[in-house]
Amino acid sequence: MLNRKKWLLKGADRLLPWVRRVPFVVQRVALQQGLNRALAEPLRAGEFEVLRERWLCLRIPDIGVCWYLTLGDEGLRVAERATAHVTISGNWREFLLLASRQEDPDTLFFRRRLVIEGDTELGLALKNLIDSLDPDVLPVWLWRNLERAGKGLAAQ
Hints:
Nonspecific Lipid-transfer Protein, Chain A; alpha+beta; 5-stranded mixed beta sheet
């Protein structure tokens, strides 16, 4: 089983950089729809209001992508360029560990595996928001796959 997990992670290392070649309009539609569906409950509850009229830049240098997110009237919006109030940078593996709850966000930031630049107060508010989200708000299939992938990565 461990060999299979290593093989899958190596495959992800090779395939994920191809995301940067996907036209941005496709990335935007996929991200916006995916995030707004997956986070529908916390969005309805107003938990993302901290992003209204403010821009978060998510930078993933090892796959060569950078997305800008804000909260609009229709939910989370993704842009190719914006003036970021805060930037959170890290490699895809760190974001997977964070999303799957296999690594404590404070540990990732303290070890500089994830970096916050810009409005650190906004960055910390977003970090705390992400950390406070209950995995039950995600579709079951998504959470199971995130958790499985994160456990495989953490076991490496």
